[in-house]
Amino acid sequence: MSEQLLHASGVTIAYGGVPVVHDVTLTLHAGERVGLVGETGSGKSTLAMSLLGMLARGGEVVAGSIAFAGRELIDLRERDWCRIRGRELAVVFQDAGAALDPVKSIGWQVAEAIRVHERDASRAHLRLRVAAALEQVGIPAARAGAYPHELSGGQRQRVAIATALVHRPRLVIADEPTSALDVTTQAQTLRLLDDLVADVGAALLMVSHDLGVVSQFCETTVVMYAGRIVEAGPSPELFAQPRHAYTSGLLRSVAALSDPDCRRLPTIGEDVLAAATADREAR
Amino acid sequence: MSGTAGPLLTVRGAVQTFYARSRVRGMPGEEIRALDGVDLDVVPGERLGIVGESGSGKSTLARAVVGLRALDAGRVEFEGTDVGALHGAELRRLRARLQLVLQDPLASLDPRMTVRRLVREGLDVHATTPPAERAALVEETLAQCGIGPALLERTPAALSGGQRQRVALARSLVLRPTLVLLDEPVSALDVSVQAQILNLLLDLQELHGLTYLFIVHDLAVARWFCDRIVVMHRGRIVEQGPSEQLFADPREPYTRELLAASALHAVVRRRPGSAQAAGSSSATASTSTGPPNGSAATPNAERA
């Protein structure tokens, strides 16, 4: 694999002094797609947001280092973050309806994303760039004047993707990018994201609770449980032979759904959860 | 009252129209047919799934069934009674037997009430059980739903997502309904918790002889849980049939499209070419019946 793009090591994140992510080490190479999976509360979104310097109020990286393209991100000043965010590191959130400003046209919002890093862009230049960005995600340039509420959920998420990619970032962090969409729209949106990320040569960190989506889109899978990475590796191997009891439990739950003879879904037993906790404490 | 032979619930020619706000003042807005002539029979004891995308009319249908919103045309009969013709006390009596469980219990449960009060509320409203027996019934029903005495004085905020959904179920079941309408009851839950709740729903059905009308967008869940599935699209039922048959041999292009798209959630062990990595989009709807790139998308049921 190519050069190392992001290397987080020994990262511990606390909210109000209570650690929620413990001693996590994560590496992404240029152009790599990594799926970060885990249940609600496993710390996957917290970890992803720490990579963007966007932890919610009260959240703080209390230990460890995050190196991105050879630069240390921990303790970066907000001013310096602003130079990186959106240009080298971009994010796509779950709910584009909330991420987009309801009172600005989508064209204005794409243009804003460009202007933040290219202050002296001319209006004509912006217009061309916005048109290209929208067309790229399958939205006719003529719709640049439309407001978010005039678009479908899938279209809104495509605008968010277009906005994230305007500066050809080196890493795109997508936090549950399609969980709010209908199944048929999800497939289209994920393929578009996949294609565009490949086009700009960016790496992708996809945070998801959907094991299927991750197994299909990411060559590497990282499983988090209770604030720790319990398993990580190439997706095919990981899904074929999960080593951690928690991962295999999750896979069994998903797989049993497609077994018509199975009249009882396997659940992740107390023993597995206890094992995961014991394992955590042993480290 | 009801006969056991006939359907428990019958919907005939249900039509519900909404109007979008007009762009021109004074002009009628665009007409949206949320239900466009829906016929449906629910047989006692079955688990009937309604699948479809958002906007397909499945939740509008649910609202009409429980009498929350009157239909523009058509009728809903529950145990032989026209739901639309009932008012006041009669409608209330019917609702005890026809319960609705919603997707998000954090939104549907009063945040200031304890678990005990939440489950008891329905009994006090309907007053069909003597007051002296209510407390015991509340605890018994909660126990059946897997909520022990230790949680009785908690509020919804102090429960996990799975526990909240168990409380929501207990709240419905304490009234001993015959039909329970489940509107995406597991969509907001993690995979492992989802499995627990689905298992619980099966146990409760057996215990109380329930009939389920299950609104769901996750086809894997629908297939596993439901005996029969109805596919809705733009306010109409486009296809229906026994679950296995519908999945094995979908007739309608829209059903095939839905099935193809749901392959997105199947765990694959080998990475296919990124161009076909995802489930199908509408462009391939008419060509693929099973999961796209079939061999690769085999869920690892037999391995696990």
String of helices and strands of chain A: EEEHEEHEHHHHEHEHEEHHH
* CATH architectural type of the largest domain in chain B: 3-Layer(aba) Sandwich
Question: What is the assigned CATH homologous superfamily of the largest domain in chain A?
Answer: P-loop containing nucleotide triphosphate hydrolases
Largest interface: A-B, 48 and 46 residues
Shape of chain B: globular
Structural class of chain B: alpha/beta
- Do you know the CATH architecture of the largest domain in chain A? 3-Layer(aba) Sandwich
N/C terminus separation of chain B: 48 Å
Provide mean pLDDT of chain B, rounded: 84
What is the CATH homologous superfamily assignment of the largest domain in chain B?
Answer: P-loop containing nucleotide triphosphate hydrolases
Q: Strands across the major sheet of chain B, in which order?
A: 6-7-8-3-9-10
Number of domains of chain A: 2
Could you estimate the helical fraction of the residues of chain B in percent?
A: 25-40%
Count all strands of chain A and give the number: 10
Low-pLDDT segments, ≥5 res of chain A: none
| Helical stretch tally of chain B | 10
Mean pLDDT of chain A: 90
- Share of residues in strands of chain A: 15-25%
Major β-sheet profile of chain A: 6 strands, mixed
Largest β sheet strand count, sense and barrel closure of chain B: 6 strands, mixed
Quick structural gist:
Helices cover 40% and strands 24% of the residues of chain A. With 283 residues, chain A is of the alpha/beta class. Chain A folds into two domains: 4-88 and 167-282, Rossmann fold (3-Layer(aba) Sandwich); 96-166, no CATH class.
